[in-house]
Amino acid sequence: MSSISKTKQDELEDFSSATPARVAVGRAGARPLTKAWLKFRVDHALARDAVCSELSEEFIQSFAAANSYPFLQSAVSTRDEFIQFPPRGKVVDKIVLEKLKTICSSGNDVQIVISDGLSAKAVEKNAVDLLPMIVDGLKMNDISQGTPVVVRFGRVAVGDQIAFALQARLVINLIGERPGLSSAEGLSAYLTYNPSPQTISSDRTVVSNIHERGTPAVEAGAYIVRLVKTILERRVSGVELQKLS
Fold it and tell me: Which of 26, 90, 121, 243 lies at a 20 to 30 A Cα distance from 59?
């Protein structure tokens, strides 16, 4: 019996080490162990901090301003408003869009948008490594691209509106995803062919869990470029792309 128990214990430890999920954490009676409870509280606090985080001035200057990326704000005034009224984070004022048209080139194959979403920390942590991989990969494949645009208080759909205004064939919105209890710094990439204000969720293809404990930024960048090529060739994204796979 002892050898069987030892084998099961080894298998359980192997399983636990392979996932950040809370498995085999043990309990004391009906309650979790103190160690497991404290770890849960820490991760919960990190997730809350991520949701409330904003792009720092240092990041804006060193990333957006230093690279001459246009920096916009959605139709939201504060982070609290962004969280409480999601639709306002999906749009940019028309005046801002008109000004953007005078700064950025139009009619490109791809328009990249970088939005803070529900974790500005994820953007600051991953975008610096991810964006160059995508930009260089698109250049190597002769895929035209507009100047990346950075959006504060941006939701996924804001990328569709920006790309539509700039007449891009495809938009890539790199956005901080909703933090979980295993990662507060996960980034997602939403790719949409023929983006417009009428775009719906099923039109989008997503690459998620881009972070150091998930898919590393460099690896994700290479995959996104391959996905862009496929979408442009087949002229569909989202559910329609899955049907063709």
Answer: 90
